[in-house]
Amino acid sequence: MNTASTSDEEPRWLTDEEQRTWRAYMHAVTLLEDHLDRQLQRDAGMPHVYYGLLVGLGEQADGRLRMTELAMKAKITRSRLSHAIARLEKNGWVRREDCPSDKRGQFAVLTEQGQEVLRRTAPGHVTAVRQALFDRISDEQRKTLHDVMEIVAQGLQPKDAGADLPWLR
Predict the structure, then answer these.
(1) How far is the C-alpha of 50 from the C-alpha of 90, rounded, in Å?
(2) For strand 102-110 and strand 64-66, is the pairing parallel, antiparallel, or unpaired?
(3) Do residues 65 and 56 make contact, with C-beta atoms less than 8 angstroms apart?
(4) Which residues contact residue 57 at a Cβ distance below 8 angstroms, ignoring those fewer than 6 apart?
(5) What is the mean pLDDT of the chain?
(6) Residue 129: HSE in the Cβ half-sphere, 13 Å Cα cutoff
(7) What is the pTM (predicted TM-score) of this model?
(8) What's the rounded Cα separation, in Å, for the pair 130 and 132?
(9) Which residues have C-beta within 8 Å of that of residue 13, sequence separation ≥ 6?
(10) Residue 108 in contact with residue 96, Cβ under 8 Å?
(11) d(CA 38, CA 44)
(12) Within 13 A of 18's CA, how many CA atoms are on the CB side?
C-alpha cells in the first residue's frame, strides 16, 4: 500500500473515526506507559525501559547479550542503551564484558543482584500489566489487539540493510 503523497497531492487526512481511534490509542499508550513507569519507580526505583532491559537479559540462559542485540530487543538507540546500562551498572544490576571475538563489541550481563531485583519486581509488574490491560479486555479483544500490533510492528520494521531503526542509530 503506497501512502506517500507528492507535494502536489492533498494529504489523505484521517477520517473522524480514524482520528478518534488514533487519539484513543495515543491516550491509552501514554497512560499505560506512565502507569507502568510509576509502578516500577515505586517498587524498584527504575523506569519501565530499564526493567525491559533486565528482562531481556534475564531471558537469556547465561544472562548476557551483546549490546547491539539488547538495543534491538529493547527498540532503543545505542546511545540510550549505553546510558541505561551505565545506570544499571551503578546500581550493581548489570555489568559489561568485552567480547573476545570482536574487540569493539561488548556484552551486557545480568548480575546476581540484578536477578534478585527481577525476582522481587516481576510479580508487581505483571499485576500492574494485567490490571491495566488484560483484565479490561475480552479474549477476543486481546487476540485482535495482538494481531493489529503485529501488523503495525511488521510494517514499521523493514528488513532491508539501510533501514532507519533506533538500534541502528
Answers:
(1) 13
(2) antiparallel
(3) yes
(4) 63, 64, 65, 70, 94, 108, 109, 110, 114
(5) 90
(6) 8
(7) 0.84
(8) 6
(9) none
(10) yes
(11) 10
(12) 4
Top mean pLDDT of 16-25, 66-75, 97-106 is at 16-25
CA-based angle 94:40:89, to the nearest 5? 15
Residue with cell 546476581: 112
C-alpha cell at 54: 533486565
3-class DSSP assignment, residue 158: coil
C-alpha 119/C-alpha 78 separation (Å) is 27
Amino acid (1-letter code) at residue 135 = D
Quick one: DSSP state of residue 75?
Answer: T
Task: Please report the pLDDT score of residue 27 as a whole number.
Answer: 97
Are 109 and 66 in contact by the 8 Å Cβ rule? The answer is: no
Residue 148, C-alpha cell as written in the block? 493489529
Per-residue pLDDT, averaged over 106-115, amounts to 96
